[in-house]
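Duplicate of #3305? Posting structure anyway:
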C-alpha cells in the first residue's frame, strides 16, 4: 500500500462491504462484529486495514518467463543474470489458473527436477503411448472374428 490511492480504494471497499452486510437480507445473520464494531471514521478504517489486511490469493505471473528483456526467468526457469538460481513456483506461471495453484506448482517442480538433472521424460511418455496403442490394437484384433 505504498500508493495512498490503494488505501483509499480499500477504505471505500470496506464501507461498501459494511453497507452490504448491514442490508436487511444479511444483517439478521450477523451475530457479532469482532474486529470493527467501533470503527467509524475513515482514519479508524485505515488503521484497521493497515493492521489486518492480508491476501488469501496465490499470486501468479509476477516473474515473467521468456527470452525478451522483460522476462525474469528463461524457459528452463533460470533467473536471468544469476547463475545457479531458478524460480519454481506460481510466480513463473504466465497467468492465473482457474483452480488451486498447488497441483500445477508441483508439476512445475517435477519439470524443474528434470531440467536440473538434464533428463527428459518425453521418451518415457512416447514409450507409454506406444505401449497403450499396442494394447489397444491387440484388444481390437482379439475382438475381431477370425476367418475359418
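Output from current build:
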Amino acid at each position: 500500500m505504498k500508493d495512498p490511492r490503494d488505501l483509499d480504494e480499500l477504505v471505500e471497499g470496506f464501507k461498501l462491504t459494511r453497507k452490504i452486510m448491514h442490508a436487511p437480507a444479511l444483517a439478521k445473520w450477523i451475530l457479532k462484529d469482532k474486529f470493527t464494531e467501533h470503527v467509524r471514521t475513515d482514519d479508524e478504517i485505515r488503521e484497521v486495514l493497515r493492521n489486518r489486511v492480508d491476501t488469501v490469493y496465490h499470486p501468479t505471473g509476477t516473474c515473467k518467463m521468456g527470452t525478451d528483456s522483460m522476462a525474469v526467468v528463461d524457459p528452463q526457469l533460470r533467473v536471468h543474470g544469476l547463475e545457479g538460481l531458478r524460480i519454481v513456483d506460481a510466480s513463473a506461471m504466465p497467468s492465473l489458473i482457474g483452480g488451486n495453484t498447488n497441483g500445477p506448482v508441483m508439476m512445475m517442480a517435477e519439470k524443474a527436477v528434470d531440467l536440473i538433472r538434464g533428463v527428459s521424460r518425453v521418451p518415457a511418455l512416447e514409450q507409454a503411448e506406444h505401449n497403450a496403442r499396442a494394447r489397444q490394437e491387440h484388444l481390437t484384433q482379439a475382438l475381431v472374428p477370425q476367418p475359418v
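Confirmed duplicate; merging threads. The two ends are 82 Å apart (CA to CA). Residues 15 and 45 are 9 Å apart (CA to CA).
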